[in-house]
Amino acid sequence: MTELELRQKAVAQFKKWLGFSEADGRYRKIVDLYNAIRPVPVGYVLQYSDEWCAATVSAVGQALGMTDVILPECSCPRMIELYDERGRWIEDDAYVPQIGDIIMYDWQDTGAGNNRGNPDHVGMVAAVNGTTLTIIEGNNGNAVAYRTLQINGRYIRGYCLPDYASKATSSPGTAGDASEWSQEAREWAVSVGLFQGAGTLPDGTPDYQWQRQPTREELVTVLHRFYHLFSAK
After folding, report:
1. What pLDDT score does 175 carry?
2. Are 46 and 66 spatial neighbours (Cβ–Cβ below 8 Å)?
3. Is-above-0.90 flag for pTM?
4. Sign of the dihedral through C-alpha 142, 146, 149, 151
5. What is the mean pLDDT of each run of 10 residues along the chain (233 residues)?
6. 3-167 carries CATH number 3.30.420
7. Where exactly are the structural domains of the chain?
8. Which UniProt keywords apply (predicted)?
C-alpha cells in the first residue's frame, strides 16, 4: 500500500463515524476505541464527559493498527508535543497540507501575527481543493462533522504530520507504469482513441501516464471523446 493509499485509508476510516454524536450516544464507541489503546496514553482513561476531538483522531490510528503513525493522545497540546519530538510538527504558513494530515486550531487567534496560542481543537484534513480545506473532526458541535477553511486561514495553529510513508509497503509507480489488472481496459481505451499519449517513454512508446491523477480538464476531455466516439454508433 502506498503512502497516498494509507492517507486515503485514514480519511475513509474517519468518515465512517460521520454523524456519530453525543445526542445519539454513538460517540461512546469512539471513546471506547481510544481507551483500548495500549499502553493508555499518559495512563489516563478518557471519560465520556471529556472533550473527545483528539481522541477521535487517535482512534483512527487504533482502528487501522497505525498508532505508530497516528500518534495517540486525548490532549491537543500533548499531541503536538508527540509530533514535535519526532520532527513531525509544522507551523509554516507556506505549508500546503495533504489529506490525512492533522490540523490544530486555536480559537483565540486574533488573526494578527504568528499564532502561538494554546491549541483548542483538532481534526484531519479530508480534502484539499485549491485554497480550500475540508476537515473532518470529532466533537464538532458534539458530533463527527466536516468543517471548511482556507489554507493558512485564521485559527489554524499548525499541523501534525503522521509519517504515513514509514508504513507504506509499496511506492507509487512512475507516470508511465501500469498494473496488469487494467491491461484489457487500457488496450481497449487506446484502440478506440479514448486515450492519447502525453509524449514518449525512453523506449519510444507513447507515455499514457496511467498512474497520474487526472485534472478535471483532462477528465472532461476523455468524456467528450467518449461521447463523440460512441454517440453515433
Report:
1. 47
2. no
3. no
4. positive
5. 93 98 99 98 98 99 98 98 98 92 90 74 96 97 98 92 92 60 81 73 71 75 79 64
6. no
7. 3-167, 180-230
8. Repeat
